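Sequence only, no structure available. Ideas?
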Amino acid sequence: MVVTRHSGRWTLEDRFVSAWQYLPVEVPPGAYALRAELEYERSGAVMDLGCMDAGGFRGWSGGARRSFVICPDAATPGYLPGELEPGTWQVMIGLHRVPPGGAEYRVTVEVSSTPGELTTRSPRTCPRCSTGRRTVSCRPPPAAAGWPATCTRTPCIRTA
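Reply:
I predicted one. Tokens follow.
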């Protein structure tokens, strides 16, 4: 697994220059999944999260999520699943609100070549069934008996 970290302090000056900040991430050939997580001081700050791959837009969740996962067969809602094109990707940070003293941030991006290794950390309830909680996972749908057929569709994929 390849891990890229960015950290620092966004200031009002950064916001005045551009509301959009782009943090580069190298995706090597053979990568299967990418997971990005944004952490920041929430006292007065509001930051949005998005992603561009080497060829263009891959997703946007605004301030609704702290992390996202993209892989060939699944992606966090708001992001496009599909093969991970090798090259320089960009994690987009929207500086919606920055307090006068600025805001510390940390972005961690993990790129894996192993199917099933990266998942979102916050569970979601499946909107199509009532069998419990699931998380978006970068692995093929389970073939285990007893799982409703409606739970084999993205984004409701069983994780082990």
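The radius of gyration is 17 Å.
Hope that gets you unstuck.
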